[in-house]
Structure prediction request, 195 residues.
Amino acid sequence: MKKFCALLLLVAMASVLAGCNNNNNKFAVVDGAKVFRESKPGQEAMAYLRTKSTELQAEAKAAQEKVQAKQTQENAAAFQEAVTKYQTTMGTEQQRVVGLLQDQFNKVLEKYRKDNKVDVILAKDVVLSYDEASDITNKVIEEINKTTIDLNAKPEAKPEAPAVGAPAAPAASAAPAAAPAPAAPAAKPAEAKKP
Prediction:
């Protein structure tokens, strides 16, 4: 599926390029995975997620030890609740933190593109061939390292547009979003891999 999407992207880019009569277009490539892995904000985000995971695993382990010491329905329910909390919270936190990083990455790329009069910046993993001079990954890492990301910030709520002719729902009556379902069946925390 990933190869198919990459192929569609290449076909779309080829169509765009074929329609360009101007040979002065400037292109650049960036390795997003390297930016997230090696940049200061990316490393801080990983450390934040590891800390959060360790805290939640400690809660689940304590609940597991209670079950092992005394198997009661109450202890088993507390253990299951701790495991579910771990899975749900970590899934939500990962999405939130990656979203914060992605937003900052996009802002840095757009600023770089405008400041350097680059027409198009492509993801390195979908480009078949390019001149190494077109790779701006290290420059993007330098720029993103100059920024800070508040990892405790809540994502901005994006208002949904009401359907045409439908009255806007008052904010107070909006139901809270449901937590995402756990991706995998509950496992004992001692056996679960650290994310």
Observations:
- The longest strand covers residues 27-30.
